[in-house]
Design brief:
With 111 residues, the chain is an all-alpha fold. It is built from 4 helices and no strands. It is rod-shaped, with a radius of gyration of 26 Å.
């Protein structure tokens, strides 16, 4: 018994650091889910704004130059590029959040 107590006293610092590491990892994983949710909401808002901007630009092109092909407009192509980027980020974050919330379901879907 004294050997166990002696060992624990000699390695008390290691034990404390080990427990703190476990707690920090748990906190980090917990906050990652919250951060993902906020990122998803922000990306959805940005997606809506980009869709509105694309619609406004298409209407402006139609009104000012109805003969032009809308896909040759540089400003519109830039908006489409940003939209694709936002949608890809949104899809990645939703997939990561789904994996965190239900890892068993994700493994079943992949199989």
């Amino acid at each position: 018994m004294s050997e166990g107590f002696r060992y624990n006293m000699q390695h008390l610092g290691d034990i404390v650091v080990g427990k703190l590491t476990k707690i920090c990892c748990a906190i980090k994983e917990s906050t990652r889910g919250i951060i993902l949710t906020y990122d998803i909401h922000d990306l959805e808002k940005e997606r809506i704004h980009l869709i509105r901007d694309i619609g406004r630009r298409i209407v402006a092109i139609r009104k000012n130059h109805p003969e032009l092909d809308i896909f040759r407009d540089d400003q519109l192509m830039e908006l489409f590029f940003k939209l694709d980027k936002v949608e890809a980020g949104l899809e990645d974050r939703e997939k990561e959040r789904k994996a965190k919330l239900d890892p068993a379901n994700l493994a079943a879907e992949e199989a």
